[in-house]
Amino acid sequence: MSDRYRYSEEMLERAIKSIPLGSQTFSKSKTQYPWGVSPYFITRGLGSHVWDVDGNEYIDFVNSLAAVTLGYNDPEVTAAVRAQIEDGVIFSLPHPIESKVAEKIVEMVPCAEMVRFGKNGSDATSGTIRLARAYTSRDHVAVCGYHGWQDWYIGSTARNRGVPKSTQDLTHVFIYNNIESLNKIFKEYPEKVAAVIMEPMNTAEPVDDFLASAKELTHKNGAVFIFDETITGFRYANGGAQEYFGITPDLATFGKGLANGYPVSAVAGRAEIMCLMEEIFFSFTFGGETLSLAAALATLTKLQKKPVIKTVWDQGKKVVDGINMLIDKHGLQDVLSTCGKSCWSFLLFKDTDVCSQWELKTLFLQEVFARGVLTLGTHNMSYAHSDEDIRNLLSANDAVFAILKDVVENGSLKKYLHCEPIVPLFKVR
């Protein structure tokens, strides 16, 4: 047990006795953070920084899996929640703030004519699928990206244990930037596909008008076109990736960027389809919980009044440009690369002759954590990330890339790595 992470490790050993994996979220669990060299529990956050249970401070580039876009404990959001809590959290009838937030989303998002709320991204994506099935009277679904934990989607992944085979058989995966892979699904299941749901972008840029082609092909085959904007929403642009790319879907889902970390998600889209919410069952005791909606209203208002999106993109560009320079400096072009948009970018690792990408990534995580940077290889930028934060990130990467270079050139992994490598248990996208 390491002294730096002593309390984290003790707490994890305690937690796994009562909580499977010791975490409520797969991507925050011990599967992603190598034992002996990682923090496991965070106690507080402010701006772009967080502190673990051992008191170690980090610049956070995970930002609660991209849910925190303004920064931890944003003053306007916190003030709005404090004011609302004085009046109450949930009531026996709807609260007016539900309409205020829905109207704000309609104002900001191109496809939004009506809105309904959930708590998690999985609620929203599952709601769109039920809507599409009701609207088309069809059952099959084409998917591209990560769309949550519910049976209809997760049955199409390696994590399909517990999902009925009959449900698995209704979901079909197509390949991003490969329109023929989508067309193949329509050909194989003519007049049976209810919806095409996709992340408009994650790691790869759309090429050859892929998004427009996917929408056209979807409508040609009588299906509903859905953007899963759980991450891209209120991050790529105030109106999401649909505004950024100029492609308006029939329905869209939002979540992570909606309330700066408070638990709320949304289904938004064409009124003709959204009206079926009166017929299908999409209902939550906590769907109108006011604290999260107060946070959402404050977050969306700040997005409109402050240069949040521009700042996130500009600061993210400094990160990506700086990392690319360091890759060149250390001659690691065959090992490391960056991708994605600057507001949500990725550092990718490749296998080498002397070690696997997972061994390299584990070593990278070990070393950046020790230098006070929290990342899983992504850079989920927030409005709070300062130039000093970026300088410190790049300084840490400079030192760590030098170690990676030594490992690649001299096969010295055992010299540096103080833990077992992480293994690829489940790739979400």
From TrEMBL:
InterPro entries: Aminotrans_3, PyrdxlP-dep_Trfase, PyrdxlP-dep_Trfase_major, PyrdxlP-dep_Trfase_small. Keywords: Aminotransferase, Pyridoxal phosphate, Transferase. The keyword Transferase applies. Its cofactor is pyridoxal 5'-phosphate. It comes from the Bacteria. One of its GO terms (molecular function) is transaminase activity. It holds the Pfam family Aminotran_3. Belongs to the class-III pyridoxal-phosphate-dependent aminotransferase family. This is Aminotransferase class III.
